[in-house]
Amino acid sequence: MNTRIFERVASYSVEFLSALGKRRVSPTATVEELREAFGGPLPERGADSESIINELIEAAEPGLMATAGPRFFGFVIGGALPEAVAAEWLASTWDQNAGLYVAAPAATVAEEVAGRWLLELLGLPDHCSFGFVTGGQMANFTGLAAARHHVLAREGWDVQASGLQGAPDLRVIASEERHATIGRALRYLGLGTDSLRLVETDGQSRMRLDALQTALEEGSGPTIVTAEAGNINSGAFDRFDEVCDVAHAAKAWVHVDGAVGLWAAASPGCRDLVTGLDGADSWATDAHKWLNVPYDSGLVFCAHPESHKAAMSVHADYLVHAADERERDPMDWNPEFSRRARGFGVYVTLRALGRSGVGEMIDRCRAHAWLFAERLGAEPGIEILNEIVINQVLVRFMAENGDHDDRTRRVIKAVQEDGTCWLSGSKWKGSDVMRISISNWSTTTEDVEVSVDAILRSAAANP
Ligand SMILES: Cc1ncc(COP(=O)(O)O)c(C=O)c1O
């Protein structure tokens, strides 16, 4: 075994991570240049391992986006805490298959402990089950799969055995501004997007309770309601206590998509946002977003472990399944069969930050969001559109000719080309907006200040 490649990767990684805060955020290579660098015919024979690793680094470097760095504010990507990166290296080194306890005892127990810690950190009921999935998409899928099982079982229908053909109609009620992964999960689940009944939102993208009530009253039978902790644009939170009250009165299951915002539950300063969160039936979130664990790391929690397990568990004679309740087989709670031991990253992050450290990280990012809003909003011709509830800032650039959408898009493009920071745009309530998402552990006030300067420079150059 050539162990020199590990030393090379370790020393390169130290250089890369140490310089991450200083490097240009956007890549420099074009798609053609990257194809050229990675391209060529399928090699007939393998090559020398050190050259391959060196060439990989050389080819990738100009095409890397500094998403893990402190001035990346696009898409809610989040960074990666050093301890979490180190744990992920170990997960690759150990190469455990965390599907079964018998194949990966240490990995499954680390997940079990981290899962319990997470329930406590997020204030969720301690009897909940959990799964360490690949991301928010699969967390929503898993939560909704448990929901589908549960609400149909109550009608005497076994969806695991009988599927959906001939099943009672199942309604899914969701916000008109739900995340795209909700509809995609419904497609995976055979429910289709036509099963969605959309509920109007208020001016900040929260579901309107009167509209939810009307939607619930319009029909009957098995029903799932999805709510949101952290709207993808405004960052708004649905009012979980009220959503749960009306939905549960109609015997509906409440699933919370908290890919970004569930972490706010770890901050005492955000208590008001998450009132009643613990009354829902399932929750989805991403460790690879605001917890700052490397990709790909999502989490699902479920208040009805029997339905969660019924929807996910699997048996095969050649496997060695957990002998009893003392062992936990992750494949009973996950859509995957074999899988990497991604729980190590979450476990180590929780140890590195502790309860207070997670809360402080959330509060720091919120303070940065307020600073962005305060500085940009103070400039003539720049408007902040949303209430800053967590980490999201929506900015609009007003044009003298009245074409605010066009100017907003031009400013976004100019900021991306400038390279000081990176952010992107969105459509919110019919208008183009610049969308700033702050979710990186290493972002400092100075990073925010230089990024605001870059945005103002770009705005001045694009009147
Ligand atoms: C609210 C919300 N839900 C779900 C997702 C999907 O998460 P992932 O990209 O980890 O699958 C996202 C991602 O941005 C999100 O913001």
Average residue-wise pLDDT: 97
The strand line-up of the biggest sheet is 1-7-6-5-4-2-3
Q: What's the architecture of the domain at 86-350 in CATH terms?
A: 3-Layer(aba) Sandwich
Q: Give the overall form.
A: globular
How many helical elements?
Answer: 14
Report the helical percentage.
40-55%
Q: How many DSSP E strands? A: 11
CATH superfamily of the domain at 86-350: Type I PLP-dependent aspartate aminotransferase-like (Major domain)
Molecules bound to protein: pyridoxal-5'-phosphate
Largest sheet: 7 strands, mixed
Order of helices and strands: HHHHHEHHEHEHEHEEEHHEEHEEH
β-strand percent reads: 5-15%
Protein architecture, described:
By secondary structure, this protein is α/β, with parallel strands linked by helices. The protein has a domain at 86-350: Aspartate Aminotransferase, domain 2 (3-Layer(aba) Sandwich), CATH 3.40.640. Helix content is 41%, strand content 12%. It has 14 helices and eleven strands. The strands form two sheets. It has a seven-stranded mixed sheet with strand order 1-7-6-5-4-2-3, sandwiched between helices. A four-stranded antiparallel sheet has the order 8-9-11-10. Strand 8 and strand 9 (392-397) form a beta hairpin. The longest helix has 35 residues, at 343-377. It starts with a helix and ends with a helix. The structure holds pyridoxal-5'-phosphate (PLP). Residues 76, 135-137, 179, 181, 230, 232, 257, 259-260, 286, 298 line the site of pyridoxal-5'-phosphate (PLP).
